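Contributing: when you submit paired examples, paste them exactly as shown. First protein:
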Amino acid sequence: MIHSKYKWQVETADAAAMQQVADELKCTLPMAELFSRRKVTTAGQLDKFLNPDKYEAYDPFLFAEMGLAVDRIKQAIEAEEQILVYGDYDADGVTSVTVLLKTLRKLGASADFYIPNRFTEGYGPNVAAFTQAKDSGVDLLITVDNGISALDVMAHAKEIGLDVIVTDHHEAKETMPEAVAVIHPRHPESNYPFPDLAGVGVAYKLAHALLGEEPTELLDLVAIGTVADLVSLTDENRLFVQKGLRILRENANIGVSALAKLASAKLPEATEETIGFMIAPRLNAVGRLGPADPAADLLLTEDPEEAVFLAEEIDEANKERQTIVAQIAGEAIAMIEAEFLGEGNEVLVIGKAGWNPGVVGIVASRLVDRYARPVIVLGIDEVTGIAKGSGRSIEAFHLYQALDANQALLKAFGGHPMAAGMTLDVADVATLRTNLSQLARETLSPEDFVSILRVEEAIPVETVTIDFIAQLNKLAPFGTDNPKPVFALEGVRLIGTKRIGTDKNHLKTAITADSGASIDAVGFGTGELVEKISPMAKVDVVGELSINEWNNMRKPQLRIVDLKIGHWQLFDVRSRAEWEKLLQTDGMADKVFVCFQDGTREKLLAENANLVCAQIQSIDDCTDAATKDLIFADMPDDVALLEALVTNTSADRIYLHVEAKNGNAIASMPSRQHFAQLYAVLKKHQPFPLAQNMSRLCKQFSWTDDQVDFMSRVFFDLNFATIEDGVIRLNEIREKRNLEDSAVYKARVYRIAMEQKLLYSNYNELYDWMEKLMNSKGNSILEETVK
């Protein structure tokens, strides 16, 4: 048994309604369901969804105060005033800076940029930076991707005579900042039809308004910032990203091209995943570790040599970032497991001195995925007593509103419903944790703390073809509100499952249906599951479909997102190689070894003192071991002990390793002729000293000592003979008795059947036997077979 990581929520649709959509869109029923879930149900909507070049972007002057902003900027350009673009240190921020600064310079403006240092200044506008800008001769400051919540700083700018235009997309307060103009898609007086632009999208709309036409050559940068900021990939954002990807493939920004080359990203084949997994993380890395200026410089440069130099600096920063994230994540998990699980920690708020505030947002995302609850991770400065960090949330918990309700504890904060940054005194961290957890208890249900994975539908393996996946790819680019479709493949087997990758932490397999249809699959970061999936397990898998191209061959492939096995599993480790492999597996301390023979337990513990080894010597010992993994480490003398454990266990996985005392050679059963021959010898030579004649008997009849001893004990058991001081004498036989009447004889028959079953049955026979035991209410299946 393997439990799924997520709760699978399989989408359902009304068949009749979907048929109408299919007819309207002139597509297959499965594609109609996919389109309708993305609110594409008419031919017009489908055309706009698939063909962005046919449609114009929205009029930028639908933004409230856009006219004010354009007039003031053009006035500054005409008067040769100094303009400063004030940005943010993430990928959305640096692309916003680049888009607006390139536009201003194209218009002849004297303009430069400023990005605050994450560690010394924090997010967004600050009084010192604005004062410095004014003192250095700046007449007009334009924020991009920040500023909407900085009411006090904007008031200060007004006092010192610094004109400010705010462009932002983050959550706004009830009061708008005092500025020349506030360009925000959710401005209360705005008529703009799409509220979910990224910061770079807002900057692009201002650029559009200034130029009088769209600067479409900048859409590769808009696509990067939009994908990186995880905003809704619908409506205008979808158009921006579709067009931007085309530019990225055909004529990308010089700096982006240099960075992509270092990331081994093939820009001519770029998708939203190229941005999300290769380009954006590198642009983000610089600002996470220090000043973000190199990222903006990379995107602004027109010099190929400078682009290469900056790209190398950024790529090295990304490698360092990866190392730091891995270290902090490990420490955070250990801290949570030791201190912060259970009631009172519905929202995890953790921090530690030395944790880099620039990367804790990534760590928070990983922890949300692991624990399915909101998480805030803080880096603590012991000198100043200040904690800075980031939070990530679950769908049911609006993180920004929760922080806003606790703003008295915060020196600064900002963000979205699902992500936020904050600064506070270390002394207030515990109170924030208590307040947020209490709010979560009051507003959330237990179901809200279970991560949901939305699955489009369950499909047969046979339907997964190159053509089917090509149809799915028409839905791209994928992202927020247009997720990449996840499908379920139910009741399949995984064939040839193995670990891959430098660290062997990924899984590669072939998903095979009963019909024989098969597709390749890979599970990133799921290598530990390889040892937990038995060859005959019926597996339910969910994942994303793609086309894998290798050596000029194109094949369907599933990227495994989650899987589950709803039944117990049997693992055959009877061979020495499999047994040694099992003993070397990580996490052995979580398994229970069952030892029947004297010495097995001592041998195992001598090799690994941390193992849990149970010595089973009687039925009274056969209680259910509290474990997911039950390992039978040797051969029982009485199979009833093993049967009792199998009957009672609730283990998810059973491992069988048995070894006969005589080297896996089943003890032979003497024939009736052998019994007659021995009886004749005893009768002719009685009284018969057994020990003195053992070697002569064995040589004459080709018997073993064990066979002679066994036949003698059968005679004693049937009262055919007695032994005293090693001398056998026959008794007078008063009634005829069969060999089968002897308990000793029956025990031998039973033992042979047991060894035959445990040593030489194939996997399916062993599985069926144990499955029957689990349903037999304790009756011995083997004993019934022998009878």
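Second protein:
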Amino acid sequence: MTTAEPFTHALLTDGATVRIRRAVPGDAERVLAFYDAMSPENRRLRFFSTGRRPAELAAARVAAAPKDDYEALLAEAGDRVLGIADYAREPGTTAADISLAVADDQHHRGLGTLLLEHLVATARDAGITTFTADALSANHAVLKVFTDPGLRTRRHFDGPEVRYAIDLTQTDAYLSATDRRGLVADVASLRPLLRPRSVVVVGAGRRAGSVGRAVLRNARFGGFAGLLRAVNPHADIIEWVASHPSVASLPYVPDLAVLALPAPAVPQMAEECGEAGVRALLVLSSGLTREQAADLLAHCRRYGMRMVGPNCLGLLNTEPDVRLNATFAARPPLPGTAGVAVQSGGVGIAVLDGLSRLGIGVSTFVSLGDKYDVSGNDLLRWWETDGRTDLAVLHLESFGNPRAFSRTARRVARTMPVLTVDAGRSDAGRRAAASHTAASASPTMTRGALFTQAGVIATRTIGELLDTAALLTSQPLPEGGRVAVVTNAGGAGVLAADACDEAGLTVPVLSEATTAQLLADLPRGASAANPVDTTAAVGEEQLRRCADRLSRCGEVDTVLVVLVPTAVATAVGDDLVGALVHRPSPLPRPVAAVLPSQSTRVELLPVHEGGHVPAFGDAQDAARALAHAVTRARWLARPLGAVPALTDVNGAAAREVVVRHLAEQPDGGWLDPTTAAELLSHYAFPLSPWAWAADETEAVRVAERLAGADGAVVMKAYWPGLVHKSGLGAVVLDLRGPAQVRSAYRELARRFGDRMTGVVVQPLAGRGTELFAGVVQDAVFGPLVLFGLGGTATEVLADHAARLAPLTDVDVRELMRAPHCAPLVFGHRGGGPVDVAGLEQVLLRLSRMACDLPELAEMDFNPVLARAESVMVVDARVRLRSAHAVDPYLRRLR
């Protein structure tokens, strides 16, 4: 490296790693050498000339001192420059002219498109909105690079030349195209790790109890289909596998190296693996220091190796042509179609054992450990394309890039269920937050928003996850949340109905016609209102007919059969469970059993004609699993949604306000009312009229101007840093006439003294539904939009819901219906709805503002006064902080 400039690593379409960074003056000779190495034809296509002078000028410009109107990016592997992309801003505009060049032997690897993506992100950060470019029409490679990214382009042909104009607006089409490219590159990079043709275990000890030896034994006895060797300088044979003194002495270059070494030895061994050409690492070792960890990751990036770990249980792939068990787990799982990725090795063992007990096999298992490189996002992409996995199971304690994870997960969840244990739900780190918004945005809420929008089924325990997996893998999805409870014991039926209600399901009263038909088949004394109490006298055939009729009646979506053992059934030889599993044909709707006498939490009972019926030991477990299935069905049925275009938004002017404020106050802070109103005006929020008064006389004057139809105004004291005005008595309501206004001002001035710098005067708002809307920038999850009950009760009742920005039209509607106060918005007890469209606009504009301005630390509107004819923001607070915009969708390795 010739510079200390920041850099990042990213993947090419073949899975190789390149480093991308800004060019600096010290790069001059290397850049010129890059151009000199190009063939005459490629130089002609790049410079419209084959002479050396244009290349010399381009190299001098690339390597010149940094300028505000120019930027150049280099793509490198080792010390070699593979590609260059640069832009030069046109003076006084937000447009920039670009050029792009790729080494002759690097074409068709996606390098040009990758460089363009990074140049787009750099330019957006500098306020550039349009790229222009000239190319020869014969330069098909660069023309493809300009059109492939998914950005809106215009082109003009002028003889042999083509003039491009590229709009840098980040549209969903651009993000989707970026996703597709990232998917191809990511999967290619993971093949040596998850589908290796050769493996070496480094650190397989001679003593039987070592981790490395356990992995080697599992790989051998698991029947690994490729080449397997060990590295141990003190042994020739370990576990009947040939051992060699070093990686360099192996008879082949392994795809995957498993490192089970003491922490201090790991970085050096990683470097040796890289020098030998190893393509992937599985690092089981734990206890690495910060310096050792940094060295390990640096070696992986330098040599283009993907890595799982460190501090992990290992990985396995049960595909018939792989059969790799590179874990030190005691028991291998069954082969199958469930993909599993966990951060905790202990959780991984529990999940694998639980799935095996249910008979659910695993396609791929990866223990991510400390997750330095490969993450849950990578595994979702692998499962999306491996042609085998149809159920994704995740245990993630942390997220490196939640917004990128969300895009991947919501795409994958359209094709298979994605289950997770929602670990790390504590909100202790947020308890001291200063505003309503920050206090509401707990980690539980942010993770919940992520999972809800992405269609990820979040369970609270491993047991609940296994319950849900058992149901989803054995039954069709229900069309809705209506449940018929059938039982041979009335009390057990009552408990099951309660469990369904508590899980958000409904147990509807059945129609008279259905009730009569059921009673005709059931013993005397039965009840069929729902729950259906068949009595202890019910026989196997009667129970089978009852379940059939309910499944086909159309009044319910799921049949839940609760059975307890009775002497009556035993005496006549009836097998009531057999009514569910010994059937001539499957039921058209989902069916599940609750067997309180069952010793296990959940089992999959084999059905005579094929398939399984899930049987739960407790009705609450069954109800929660059913509720998750209903949630998934509803998520799949909803439209995909799109981020609506907004009018009257001036993001450039808003950014000027932010830049000006942070230049004056680098540490940021709460905006004064005038600056806040100026910022909000650029997003056309419906703000209540207001005026600033610095003294008593001015307060009287503006009060006369602002007084509403009834002549009343509100006065709010202000000083820098004031957040909770009501709690401090800094708000005076219903002031009428100059005398009351003067008296109120004097009282506030007396109470707060020199702290008070003035007051805000507004008309008395009048009646309406008081709601809350806000934004908080989460350090990991990005901007979060909150909505719920407002007014003075907002903190006490904490009735809020949240969604991650940017909000789609579907997201905003779901957000408005999520809090308990939603009936107040959409109509309650004869009252009509408020201005729903106006409220949607407020939330969408909050989302847009938060995405446009990463410096927007938090903002809350409380109250938002909603009426049938209008929505009005009565009080607004805005806090800014210095922040650098980071594109969460830019393709790069962590």
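If you have annotations for the second protein, write them as plain sentences, like these:
The first helix runs from residue 28 to 36.
The longest strand covers residues 856-866.
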